[in-house]
Amino acid sequence: MLFFGFLLGLAMEIVAFVLVAQQTGFLLALLILIVISGMGPFIVRRVGVGVLAKTQDRLEAGELPTRELLDGVVILVGGALICLPGFIGDAIGLLLMVGPVRHLAIRLGGHTVARRVTAVPLGRWRVIDARSRRAGADRPPASDAPDMSLEPGKHPPTPG
Description:
By secondary structure, the protein is an all-alpha fold. It has helices at 2-24, 26-60, 66-83, 87-96, 99-116.
């Protein structure tokens, strides 16, 4: 299904390029794609610096910057869409750089994810206690590296 979505997106981008090229000419359409894709990193940097400043403010206030982290993820996705050539991807990527549009996308995406997530009953999970496993069953093969394990009352080796 993902493959067909990719093919559909690619076909839509080709159709959009042909339509723009018919109106403006092939070379101008190509130039527009190159300029917008080239400006993408600068746009993402400018928007990202603002979100980073808000993140630092929230951290200094002792709060978790959850909204800012989601903004950062959406900015990253939008930046990837801008940097890839294509008029539809550029339009979506540029729209995601606008704060209210970005927050709307986060809200809609959150509702979509919340509808798809289901609770898993705890009875299906098995707890494995690390002490009950066989000694050495999960250890990697021995190497020439110094032994960094600590026994009670011993200090780690000092380099020297």
